[in-house]
Amino acid sequence: MKEFEATITDLSHDGKGVTRIDGKAVFVSGALLGEEVKLRIRKRHRHYDEAEVVELLTRSPHRVEPRCRHFGQCGGCSLQHLDAVSQIEVKQRVLKDNFERIGKVMPDTWLPPLTDEPWGYRRKGRLSVRSVAKKGRVLVGFREESNPRFVADITQCEVVHPSLGPKIGLLAELVSGMDAAADIPQIEFAAGDDVVALVFRHMVPLSERDQAALIAFGKQHGFAIYLQPGGVTSVHPLWPEAPRLAFNIPSGDAAFADVELEFRPLDFVQVNAGMNRRMMARAMELLDPQPTDRVLDLFCGLGNFTLPIGRRVAEVVGVEGEHGLVERAAENAARNGITHARFEVANLFEDQRHAHWAKQSWDKLLLDPPRAGADKVLEYLPHKETQRIVYVSCHPGSLARDAGILVQKHGFRLSAAGVMDMFPHTAHVESIALFER
Length: 437
Fold this sequence. Notes:
The protein is of the alpha/beta class and 437 residues long. The chain is 21% helix and 29% strand. The chain has an eight-stranded mixed beta sheet, sandwiched between helices. A six-stranded mixed beta sheet has the order 1-5-6-4-3-2, with no helix packed on it. Keywords: 4Fe-4S, Iron, Iron-sulfur, Metal-binding, Methyltransferase, rRNA processing, S-adenosyl-L-methionine, Transferase. It comes from Dyella japonica. Its EC number is 2.1.1.190. One of its GO terms (molecular function) is methyltransferase activity.
């Protein structure tokens, strides 16, 4: 295709350079703000085009050498070529722009960004598996950056938990030698503080030979091996007989004991363990739970926030839509001796205003919704008695929208907000905000 010279004038929400050619937006993989590049269009769309860098004509002073040799091919990371300080600045700018453009509201105070170890941080994820006849072997990895239909041909990953990241190639060799090599579409991984679990999804029953190979691999490399022959409920351990996945959340205060959460390998947990601990400390600081407080924790999952809050308050209720997570949250509360926490099952994307917990008064509210945000909940909560809300967000657009609702409809002010680098080297923006009556 034809090549063009252009200046990059912005970065997109997914970390691509942005320029315009003949008035049409072009998103350029691997280009940074301010760089002059020679680019090649690789895919045309009606309103925009996608391109790749052929040659860097001028380099950004913030460009660094990517640590991973698969960067640019693998779609798992998009910002390894940008220095750490600039990555955070990009995410802060995205959050600010969303508040301004969508929510029409700005925080009184910008919180300093939260950062942690940027490598080997990912303790949860899904690796795609593809048997490629032309290559005569199996590929294991994330999707390709240029074509998400294909699995990137990688041998290691710099952001995956260090027990697994260097061994992606060994996983590919393992599956290549199995009878069911063409019938394993994915491998999920989940790391607790002491155990890393691998969950092999398989579309046909595994032979005794394949099961023996998986057990041997687990023993050699210290992985717990699980099989998934069907849906989520079909997941079961192959070896050892009863692995225990758990992680610890420090209380951050000598007056309170730490919390340990047990979980199953497909349960939702925060991907970045170090950042989860930092996020927990900030959430507690902003929520400021007091011994007489009654707190409502919505989208509570396993009780990641609920249980530490339960150490400090008169009562906390966690609400979550997935029965299994609520069951395990209650078990974790009992295991940790937390008697002031209880849990409810409810689909928070449906109207729950008649639920007993929704009709009660709460001093404080914590929200940790998925990407869609919490606008359905904000149609009937918070009540006038609620004085403080901490909102943990994985999508700046939905946070900004909901901030507008809380400020304009419910009479709160956006006291503080800031980004948390839960996914270093990606364009994903995680953030936290405090709303006060």
